[in-house]
Amino acid sequence: MRTALITGITGQDGGYLTERLLADGEDVHGLVHRGDEHAASLAQRHPDITLHVGDLADAAGVEALLADVEPDEIYNLGGISSVALAWRQPVLTARVNGLGVAGLLESAWHLQEGRGRPVRVLQASSAEIFGAPETSPQSEETPLRPVNPYGAAKAYAHTLLRVYRSRGLYACGCILFNHESPRRPETFVTRKITAAAAAIAAGRQDVLALGNLDVRRDWGWAPDYVDAMIRAIRHSEPDDYVIASGHAHSVREFVAVAFGRVGLRRWEQHVRLDASFARPVEAAEQVGDASKARRVLGWTPSMSFEQIVTAMVDHDVALLQPAPAK
């Protein structure tokens, strides 16, 4: 039986990954920070997992955890996940998303050297490492040019993967472009849009406030991206892979599909622009070239942009329905 350790286990990707690994018969452990409001519900849904309270930025604590769990696979999904929060707390973002990964990789290497058998590490990188690229679509060869603190910290962590591969550690990275699901928190613009569409259609909300509607992103289906991470960490050789749909859509298009799903064709009547939601620096378009993942890992996305938005809206509509009488 393989033992897996997941940081960020209570997030969107962590939940889907937990379900996949348990289905594969793995012994699953998760790192959660103290006070994580989602930890109890995750443990209740999956009583077979083991949760450990800790901090990714605590290098000594992470090394002690790895020595205790002795994982065969480490999936690093943890850290600051919001670009907006990273702008407000750049030092914390650097400490967790950058130095935290350095400590994790070093601890994994020490564990491997000490017990004499391989430890595999998967780093969830981000399209934000490319920043405002000069070429499109972006591939594994695209230069790293981050334009925000989140991307800069992720770029440092991603660069370390090659460093630790040279030391003999199986360290691979999935450069994940935007990926969504009904499990996305409403702090993310995509879920904010779908939840608002459902609420406005139900008469429970009047207006949706957004920043830049013209930003274009490559959106995929979160379970597909979790599948890519599993394929990458179990491949014969460690490497880095762009994981993306290959198609860019604007926030405006996302809103139009979401509101159209609930019958609100004139969505402009319900949306207002708010400059406070605009980021200081924003890449106009990000779109990925996942041909390497398709060729090497046999990975393909399963859902279109319209199907993803529709699934999220339908979920939010269902949440507003009254509970059936007992």
Describe this structure in words.
With 326 residues, the protein is α/β, with parallel strands linked by helices. The protein has a domain at 3-180 and 221-243: Rossmann fold (3-Layer(aba) Sandwich), CATH 3.40.50. The chain has 11 helices and 13 strands. The chain has helices at residues 12-23, 39-45, 59-69, 83-88, 90-115, 149-165, 189-201, 222-233, 251-261, 291-297, 305-319; strands at residues 3-7, 27-32, 50-53, 73-76, 120-126, 170-176, 179-180, 208-210, 216-217, 220-221, 240-243, 249-250, 271-273. Strands 3-2-1-4-5-6-11 form a 7-stranded parallel beta sheet, with helices on both faces. A two-stranded parallel ribbon has the order 7-10. α7 (189-201) runs parallel beside α9. The radius of gyration is 20 Å and the shape is globular. The termini are far apart. 45% of the residues are buried.
